[in-house]
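[agent] plan:
  1. take the single chain provided in the ticket
  2. run structure prediction with default settings
  3. attach structure tokens to the ticket
  4. add a short note for the reviewer (M.T.)
[agent] executing step 1
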Amino acid sequence: MAKTGMERLEELRKEIFKCIHCKACRFAYSNEPDKDGIGEFAGKQGTILYEGMVDACPAGIEYGWEAFWNAGKMWIARSILSGDLEFSEEVRDVFLPCITCGQCSAQCENKVPTVDIIESLRAACLEAGIPMIDKHEVVDKLVKERNNPYGGKAAERFKWAKDAGLEKFIDNKGAKIAYYVGCTASYRQVEVAIATAKLFELLGMNFTLVDDEVCCGSPFFRIGAVDTAQELMRKNLEAFKNVEMVYFSCAGCYRTFTIDYPKWMAEGEKLPFKTQHAFELVARLVQQEKIKFKPNKELKGKVVTYHDPCHTGRHFAIDMEQEMIKESTNLIVDHRAIDKAIEAWYEVPRIILRKLEEDVGLVFKEMYRIKIDSMCCGAGGGVRAGYPEFSLRTASLRCDEANAVGADILTTECPFCWRNLSDANEMYEHGMKVLGILQMITEYNLLEILNKPTEKDFLTLSIREEIGHLPKK
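[agent] step 2 finished; step 3 output follows
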């Protein structure tokens, strides 16, 4: 039997009571008050000081009072478990405008898994009979009718592949590798889907686009609609059961398959395939000197910065940390190895960007808040659908940070981040170009193959799997 939200909340009871309300969770760089930075910058959303500890919880910044900061939400969870507070629409409306970016968990010295707690709180709230907000009910209805939250027709899920001359990969029988495209790249940001699939084709990968692919369920795990999410999970597990490796270009889909599915599957059940993000493959091929990039006059001298998606960044880093803590027999000794693994994980997309800087001639500049301290784009946790104005103001704050380093191009590696940052860039006139890294490689024809990869290369364990364990003693 699958778990309920309240069962998950009860499992997390000890973690919830670890919160001491120290308020470190409201900041980026909570342990580095003297960190050097850019200094003051007047952006579209006002003036901010990019130096030292910086407020970084989007809900706290937007709403400004205690209950919306993470410490307040942990107090709500504690009160629900102790019976001092009952679920209601008023309570729901406090913990729902949370993007579940994980910044709070990353800053927490007690390692409280805040995202897991908030998602379980939302699921338990629904189970208690408190309805979804109207905008979430709409997407829940759409996904039940069409298997995607955008209302796109099933027959048009891979229309982008047919239009781009990639039809041969649709239900490519016998392929050991699948590309899970996801709803956003299938129905909205088709540029990301086309770029990823064409890159795979150029590399010589024999892959399949699985015709029975449905929404990964990420938006529904986030908003607490666990029954909807688990139904989608079961459909995908059945659809992809005959492949060995599933590749992703969407951070949210990758996180959902890799972290959420095992968490919500029946006890003892395991994923029938391995998972990997496309940027892991590209980074490895760069390191192995099997590929490089061509010089490009149009990109030469352009300042490029990178936005770490929360789902591939913090969510994987925190999950990696939690799993390695479980492995540890001496955390004082092992914590250095854990920190090293997290840093190695954040370096993966940067391996590609530094190679692009070296080969292509672009200039790679980091924003102030990066890696584990990165600012969220504002799209996740059901917030883009439920609270679009708040979501876009958060994205504009992130675009301000890119403007502060003089970026011409803001890159990321998630179509949902791409959408939100792109919309804010246009709406608030930030004046940049927003691109996925793999999209940039494909659209500017930058790829140069030095030594054609083999199927073994494509089926190799992900970088995440390689680095996410303590060294053997």
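[agent] step 4 note for reviewer: The chain has three domains: 5-127, 150-288+452-461, 291-449.
[agent] ticket updated
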